[in-house]
Design a protein that fits this description.
The complex is a heterodimer of chains A (247) and B (190). Chain A has 247 residues and is an alpha+beta fold. Chain A has seven helices and eight strands. An eight-stranded antiparallel beta sheet of chain A has the order 5-4-7-8-1-2-3-6. In chain A, strand 1 and strand 2 form a beta hairpin. The longest helix of chain A has 15 residues. Chain A is elongated, with a radius of gyration of 25 Å. Chain B has 190 residues and is an all-alpha fold. In chain B, 67% of the residues lie in helices and 0% in strands. The chains are: A alpha+beta (247), B mainly alpha (190). At the A-B interface, helix 1, helix 2, helix 3, helix 4 and helix 6 of A face helix 2, helix 3, helix 4, helix 5 and helix 6 of B.
Chain lengths: 247, 190
Amino acid sequence: MTHDDDMAAAYVLDALGPQELEEFEAHLAGCKQCQTEVVELRQVVDILPLAVERVEPSAALRARILEAAAHDSGEAPQLGLILGEKPGLVAPPRQRSRLPAAILATAAAVLIAVLGIRDLELQNAQTPQQSLQAQVTAALAGGARVNLIGGTSTDPRATASLIQAPHRAYLVVRGLHPSSASTVYQVWYVRGTTVKSAGVFRYSGGPKIVPLPPTAGAGATAVTMEPGPRGSKLPTGPKLLLGTVHA
Amino acid sequence: MSIEPQSDEALIASIQKKDVVALERFYDRHRVLAYALALRMLSNPSDAEDVVQEAFLSVWRAANTFRSERSTPRSWLLSIVHHRSIDKVRSRQSRPKAVELEEGMMIPDGADVWREVAANLTSDDVRTALDTLPLAQRETIELAYFKGYTHIQIAQVMEVPLGTVKGRMRIGLHRLKSALEGSQTGLVIE
């Protein structure tokens, strides 16, 4: 194509059709003037997004992206990079699991990415939560299924992940409002038209692992706020978390 | 001891090594702008989230193709969001997809004094600068960049010759640059 002073602007604005684009790029390769113009105008185009009104995406998007990255086939997260560079995250080598490093790497990455847990003490459990973290890590290393449970419109900031191990399940929640002295959060398994309580927990902030019974064919899980300390026989409060359970 | 990378470039370097925590921090830093851009272009929250997810995963998978001499990490991410959004816009119109410009694109190296200007710009600066453009130039740029129209479509919509559209794009972008440079006193752009 012949030189056209105006093509660079259309190019940096992505306003060329496929054929024009191909022709212009062929021309651009040998035209210093167009190359200079493209560099100059692209810098202006790059700041156009700043003009947009800021909008927060849903909390679930974050979990989806980080989960996909952690699971990315052929791009397995590396344990050494995820854990080794983070002081306080790794137990001394002699206390580490006998599980292969690559498996632990993926498990740890999933924990960090999907569940938002950073304070992993993988093999040096001291507290109940740390013990549960170790259990969840082992479950993930063993191929446990992870289902993302999203916050409903009642509590859109809340997120959770349901980890299904063979003989146990774990719900890792974050973003709920702290429960009051008179209330608890209650987990429900939904199977067909049957709703069954899976347990209650209190929440004070941050990521929290809640041990649960096996999902046993449940098709969905939900979390509601119920009167404490034992919760309800059937859900009475609004659903705060709700998601499908894939076996 | 701080373990927080201080710059986007440091995060990209960590993402190249498949550090998912770095991706998490990069996401937390840029999610709002990335999503806002996609939503502005697509006007559909679900589609916008799909695009943002694809863009961050592109960063994750292709971080080693990032060239700091050519753009900033934020610009790189937003260009991916933009291209993906255009693809969606144009696929809705049953038209051929845009070329994936962020991959293998020929971007000549050049002086980067502008980067210093861009780093100090605020949203108000950019909006104010856009407001200084003649309406026809502003609309032309917005239809192209935020709506994914080709220059031929813009000519049809605005009922003006194609040459007029291309001229408005070029003159408008140059005016915009001058206006933005003017908003950053103390910096001289050559």
